[in-house]
Design a protein that fits this description.
By secondary structure, the protein is an alpha/beta fold. The protein has one domain: TIM Barrel (Alpha-Beta Barrel), CATH 3.20.20. The protein has twelve helices and 15 strands. The strands form five sheets. The chain has a five-stranded mixed β-sheet. Helix 2 packs parallel to helix 3 and helix 11 runs parallel beside helix 12. It is globular and about 65 Å long. The relative contact order is 0.15. The N terminus and C terminus are likely disordered. The structure holds 2-acetamido-2-deoxy-beta-D-glucopyranose (12 copies). One 2-acetamido-2-deoxy-beta-D-glucopyranose binds next to loops.
């Protein structure tokens, strides 16, 4: 079977906006200027100075139809996370067919990525390049032998619209599993455990990574978008956080041998497992050399189940007392609906919750301590994940904001504990205006789209926050990130209009539903999977990001 696709890149180009003035103590030990981003004492360094960034993400960039569009978008500047799709005329980087791999280094292959990298250099942007994607729910073609159903692409049905989401046929781990897995029963974790697949992925990694070893535009490598045990193909019971940590260790070491110039990161969503054994246990740092980073005054404590539960209890007590003082009403009546993919939606308040109990198959604490991992990563998408129990004394929106702030602080503390920078690689809230476009990360359907089934729970409608709430939440999260010592934050996702439309690509003139909406024949907008800022308060979001960037001490290029 010919499966004409493979790959998914999340290229997050940040405008790296800040080169803050080093403190006197730091300037003494300033590095000689380097061409690449490095880390020192838990801080990103570039060209002899500290580096922090605020940016955004636009995964569709390298599948644009013309170089001018890429130039225009990069020049317009939004930072970009790219997803490479393989539509009919689109870009593809690797073909896995009948058990063999073929790298596409032609003009619709890696040369397209070359263009993105070259133009990023031209515009002074950094790119964070992701090597694969966890999600790929359904292939275009059915295979009854291995019980894999094809995605429904029948015109007029729920799945007919090109939503442009991460989950739609952008290749990824499950394509390797389907095509190369040696077991007859295909399992998602074959990607992490089957030596044939590991070898194939390392081979591919070699070819892509070696291409950009000398590029100053590459901020670093991301091993995968959202690696974890579950995906469209179930995992075997043997999949657990240690399996995925071990995979990270193997691949990170491999990338470092090919490209010693650039940092390597995970790309995982930041899920933790407080009770898991560690492959890379923490060695307590010497007490004398407290981290000199300017925003990290407090020596962090390890994250334990007991501490998390105690902190929550104390926070609930504070809000309860505050509520009593102010006379009761929690203010705000609208219940924000949340799309939830699992039964773990409602946690027993005594439990530690799915973000901390290892149930996602990821222990980002173990991963950040892998020697070749240069910095920690996490994400914040409250519409799709549960980050803590709701505080009964707070309105729904405040719970969303507050849980995000606690999540940010927990990860900043983890970075401080291990002496590595941490970046929030994606954060976003679905607004009411965007609800019809929203496609959950491992789905191909828009649950609130015009072609969706009637909402099962009408009280939760309209889904999403208001634009003003989104701006409020983004501002509070960016502030929390700044204050707690995160060194990078990327809003998800950028959008761009005035792009050249072409049949069969992500900017298509033939599509009339949510996804890609052309404005004029031949002109289209970038895909929207529910987090785009196109037409829904774009300027406010841009302003919020710019202000945060300025707070980092420099001008944003917006
Ligand atoms: C279905 O999968 C099996 C097992 O991997 C493979 O041998 C067969 O060629 C596949 N069939 C098609 C139509 O792709
Ligand atoms: C590095 O710093 C030097 C000295 O401040 C400056 O002249 C140069 O433009 C910087 N290079 C880059 C790539 O920022
Ligand atoms: C639209 O895109 C074209 C080609 O990239 C560019 O020349 C033109 O300036 C853009 N128009 C606007 C209004 O931004
Ligand atoms: C950036 O894109 C927006 C939206 O398409 C457009 O309004 C704006 O003019 C562009 N800015 C530049 C500098 O091209
Ligand atoms: C793009 O795809 C369409 C539909 O398959 C085809 O007619 C057209 O020739 C292709 N264009 C290019 C440039 O490959
Ligand atoms: C797949 O590979 C096998 C063995 O290499 C070969 O016999 C077969 O013809 C190939 N099938 C296709 C469709 O290329
Ligand atoms: C490695 O990649 C090369 C070039 O695409 C290909 O020819 C070779 O078969 C690959 N090797 C393996 C083991 O996948
Ligand atoms: C593409 O790969 C082939 C085989 O490895 C090589 O001969 C060719 O020079 C490459 N072309 C480009 C443009 O990189
Ligand atoms: C193959 O499947 C068996 C049974 O599910 C499992 O125990 C084994 O780990 C799998 N092997 C690989 C390489 O995935
Ligand atoms: C999405 O992921 C969840 C687990 O996080 C899983 O239970 C669900 O079946 C997945 N849905 C699809 C469509 O893959
Ligand atoms: C809830 O959030 C809103 C908006 O940020 C804020 O004005 C209000 O004080 C918060 N309410 C509580 C009880 O914290
Ligand atoms: C979409 O799916 C729902 C059921 O999930 C169904 O009620 C609805 O009719 C479908 N819409 C279309 C256009 O097929």
């Amino acid at each position: 079977m010919y499966l004409p696709l493979l790959w998914q890149v999340v290229l997050a180009a940040a405008w790296v906006v800040s080169a803050t003035t080093p403190t006197p103590t730091l300037s003494k030990r300033r590095n000689a200027p380097t061409r690449f981003v490095t880390t020192q004492d838990g801080q990103f360094k570039f060209n002899g100075s500290d580096l922090d960034f605020v940016g955004t993400n636009a995964y569709w960039l390298s599948s644009l139809n013309t170089d001018e569009d890429i130039d225009f978008t990069l020049g317009n500047m939004s930072a970009n996370g790219i997803r490479v799709s393989i539509p009919e005329n689109g870009t593809w980087f690797q073909l896995i067919s009948n058990g063999t791999l073929e790298i596409n280094n032609g003009t619709n292959g890696l040369q397209k990525l070359d263009t993105v990298v070259r133009l990023a250099e031209k515009h002074g942007l950094f790119l964070l390049l992701s090597l694969t994607n966890n999600w790929n729910p359904r292939p275009l073609f059915e295979n009854s032998t291995i019980s894999i159903q094809a995605r429904d692409v029948t015109p007029g049905t729920n799945n007919s619209l090109p939503r442009g989401t991460l989950s739609n046929d952008y290749g990824g781990m499950d394509v390797y599993v389907r095509q190369l897995g040696t077991n007859t029963t295909k399992a998602h974790d074959d990607f992490f455990q089957d030596q044939t697949i590991i070898d194939a992925f390392l081979n591919y990694t070699t070819q892509v990574v070696s291409r950009y070893v000398e590029s100053p535009a590459v901020f670093g490598w991301e091993l995968a978008n959202d690696p974890r045990c579950n995906s469209s193909i179930p995992s075997t019971p043997s999949c657990n956080p240690q399996v995925i940590t071990r995979w990270h260790s193997t691949v990170a070491a491999h990338v470092k041998t090919i490209d010693p110039n650039h940092l390597v990161s995970s790309g995982n969503q930041g899920f933790l497992c407080t009770g898991c054994p560690k492959l890379f246990p923490r060695v307590p740092p010497p007490q004398t050399s407290a981290t000199p980073s300017r925003r990290r005054a407090v020596v962090p404590k390890p994250l334990t189940k007991r501490k998390i539960l105690e902190d929550r209890k104390a926070a609930f007590k504070r809000t309860r007392n505050a509520k009593k003082r102010t006379g009761g009403t929690s203010g705000g009546i609208r219940i924000r609906g949340r799309w939830m993919s699992t039964e773990t939606r409602r946690q027993d308040d005594q439990g530690i919750g799915p973000a901390f109990d290892g149930s996602q198959g990821i222990d980002s604490e173990d991963i950040i301590n892998i020697p070749q991992i240069g910095f920690g990563t996490f994400q914040l998408f409250p519409d799709q994940n549960v980050y803590g129990p709701d505080d009964p004394n707070l309105p729904a929106f405040n719970n969303t904001v507050e849980q995000g702030i606690q999540w940010i602080r927990a990860h900043a503390a983890l970075g401080a504990l291990f002496g590595k920078p941490v970046t929030l690689n994606g954060f976003g809230l679905v607004t009411q205006a965007n609800a019809p476009f929203f496609v959950p990360f491992n789905s191909t359907q828009a649950p609130f789209g015009p072609d969706a089934a009637p909402a099962p729970t009408p009280t939760q409608q309209p889904f999403g926050v208001t634009d003003a709430q989104r701006d409020d939440a983004y501002t509070q999260w960016l502030q929390a990130g700044l204050q707690s010592g995160l060194q990078g934050m990327l809003q998800y996702q950028w959008s761009q209009d005035n792009l050249t439309a072409a049949v069969g690509t992500v900017v298509s003139p033939t599509v009339t539903g949510p996804g890609t909406v052309p404005t004029v024949t031949g002109i289209g907008v970038s895909p929207n999977d529910g987090y785009s800022i196109q037409g829904v308060g774009q300027q406010q979001v841009v302003d919020t990001i710019r202000q945060a960037a300025q707070a980092f001490g420099s001008d944003a290029l917006l």
